[in-house]
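Exercise 7. Given the encoded structure of a 209-residue chain, write a plausible sequence.
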């Protein structure tokens, strides 16, 4: 199944644009805009939510993702306003978030920590999606059944089919973007968590090859 357009990634691009103009703009509260952009990602979180989750109306969801394929695919981000997890836009989003922190982290102020957490929420999932050699899980959920049923993820009862690419079912675009996300995030954590950074970089190199 082809990935959806990169809808969920838009806020990551917005973060970059906001930071580019923040230094010269004084008429608007861009720090508040940045905070709300990052809050968007917390609202899109799937899986078991942490104690410091700021979007309190969200709760744990999709706690058995990947079970049908015998793997753990819990976590990550839902796409746009639905309950599907698409690997391509999620990886692109994680790449953009990582480069936002790398290039503009020093100007993020109190939101830097939350931005770093947003990156890690994405990479933790991408590590799960690439845990099997030669396989990348690229989607969880069935788009048809999901888009025909409007319900919050905490209550969803639609199919949670796991889709993958491998040697017999290639997908170089999503595989490459997943490797890019892991590699970019490894820079984010190079000094913050060297061990985690090495895991990300090694997986990126392994996935690229």
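Solution.
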């Amino acid at each position: 199944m082809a990935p959806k357009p990169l809808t969920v990634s838009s806020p990551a691009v917005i973060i970059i644009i906001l930071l580019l103009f923040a230094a010269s703009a004084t008429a608007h509260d861009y720090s508040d805009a940045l905070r709300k952009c990052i809050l968007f990602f917390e609202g899109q979180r799937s899986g078991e939510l942490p104690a410091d989750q700021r979007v309190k109306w969200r709760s744990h969801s999709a706690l058995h993702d990947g079970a049908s394929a015998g793997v753990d695919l819990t976590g990550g981000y839902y796409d746009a306003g639905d309950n599907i997890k698409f690997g391509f836009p999620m990886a692109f989003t994680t790449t953009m978030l990582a480069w936002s922190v790398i290039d503009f982290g020093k100007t993020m102020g109190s939101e830097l920590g939350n931005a770093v957490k947003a990156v890690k929420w994405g990479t933790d999932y991408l590590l799960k999606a690439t845990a099997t050699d030669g396989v990348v899980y690229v989607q969880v959920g069935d788009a048809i059944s999901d888009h025909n049923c409007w319900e919050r993820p905490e209550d969803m009862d639609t199919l949670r089919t796991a889709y993958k690419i491998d040697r017999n079912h290639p997908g170089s675009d999503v595989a490459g973007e997943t490797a890019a996300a892991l590699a970019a995030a490894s820079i984010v954590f190079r000094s913050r968590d060297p061990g985690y950074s090495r895991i990300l970089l090694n997986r990126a190199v392994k996935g690229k090859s």
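Remark. The chain has a mean pLDDT of 90. Students should compare their own answers with the one above.
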